Every structure is written in C-alpha cells, then in structure tokens.
What does this fold into?
Amino acid sequence: MVKIEKKKLMIFIPAYKTEKTVCSVIERIPKDTWNKITEIVVFDNCSPDNTYNTVKNYKKEKGISKLKIFRHNKNLLFGGNIKAACNYAVNHNMDIMVTLHSDGQYPPEKINELIRPIEEEKAQVVLGSRFLENPIKGGMPFWRYLGNIFLTKIENTLINHKLSEWHSGFTAYDCNILKEIPFNLCVNGYEWTTDSLLLFIRKKCKIKEIPIPTHYGKESTSPSIKRTFLYFINSFKIAFLFFLDRIKIIKIKKYNF
It folds into this structure.
C-alpha cells in the first residue's frame, strides 16, 4: 500500500447566483474528506442574489473555521474566477486545489477519489469525467451530449491527446504545477477548461481521469444554447491555435514558457 503524505487541500467553490444550492453542496462533503481539508474557499462572482450572505450566515451558524467566503467587486467570468482561486491557492501554499461547482452538478462525494492520484504522486491534474459513465442517464441534454463528444474528438485530434472529456468542471490540481504554468494568461470565459488543459499538456503533466456520475436538475446552472455554441467555436479556435503552435507555424507566448 502506498503511504500517502498529508497535504494541504483547498476546495474551491465558484459561486454565481447559487444561493439555493451552495450550502447543500458544502453539506455533502464527506466527513473523511473534511478531515483532509485545510480550507474551503467560496468566491462569489459578484452575484446579484444573496449568495454571499447565504454562505456567510451558514459559516457563522455552523461555526466552520475552514470555510472562507469572498466576493468579487465585479464579475470576473468563469475562467477569471478560477484564476483568482489558483492565485489564492499558490499564495497560501496549498498542495492540492479542487474545483467544485456550487450548483450540485458535480459530486462532492468523489473528492477523495479525485485527489488520490495526486496524493500518490501518480498525476498532477485529475479530471472528473462524465463520459466515463453515462451522462444521458444523469440528465445531460442530448444536444450537449453530442456537442461535447464532437468537440472532444476534435480537440483530441488537434492536440494529439486522448481524453474522454475536455470540459469537466470537477478538477484537481497539484499546486506545485500551478506555480510553473502561466495560467493568468488563459481566457476568462468558460473556454478556460480547454485553455488551461493545453498549458498542462504543454508542460507534459501527468493527467488522469476518474468516472463521475452526471446530475442535471432544475437547480443546475448551464449556459444557453447560444452561449454553448460560442463556447464550441471559441474552444475550437483555442485548440486550433495550439495545434498551429505545436507544428511551429505560429508561436503563442502562453504556450511557450
């Protein structure tokens, strides 16, 4: 059995208009995971609702010293919020950072499995993949299912990589690697998922995937069809530019560090 050295674990919860679900997501974190956690950091992305105060009151009511809640003065967009969390993790000397959405779409019960490859030094990035199980069964809209598969195939071909899913919001990072890649140069939108993965691939990081169940309910927050189409186009563009850089037709600063 591999001896696992205790590491400083940070759970990052990006929050935007999730006052009804964010606390239930925190409640679902298993007790054995709580024992490993150094901090749970919620970054409210300038929500127009009561998300910030809901978490603040929950922290006070439960007396959870590990729970930190911050509110951005302006909306940094999805990727911008994750960048803020990565900077926080690096500046606070964390060893592992997990991204866990606040709408209940991803399973807190799987955090231990997600971080295990990093704890055992078998990976530096771990992705929770819905496509290693059955996302349709979990309520993923069929049009999102087909689009995700198609875009993932394109990205795998362009990047010469093999992932079952490029677009998971349930991820774990070795913070030592975050210190070595220019993640602040990544895009601020939802396309962060593709852009940041390309940095890890360029760094030749060990990337692993674990299967996770899919959950799409009324409380789940998802981009509109229009926003999803733009995400598809922009993600393809990012992957294509990386491809051109890889075959040395162009040179992009953030991929040459």
Notes: Strands lie at 9-15, 37-44, 67-71, 96-99, 125-129, 171-174, 207-211. The chain is about 40% helix and 15% strand.
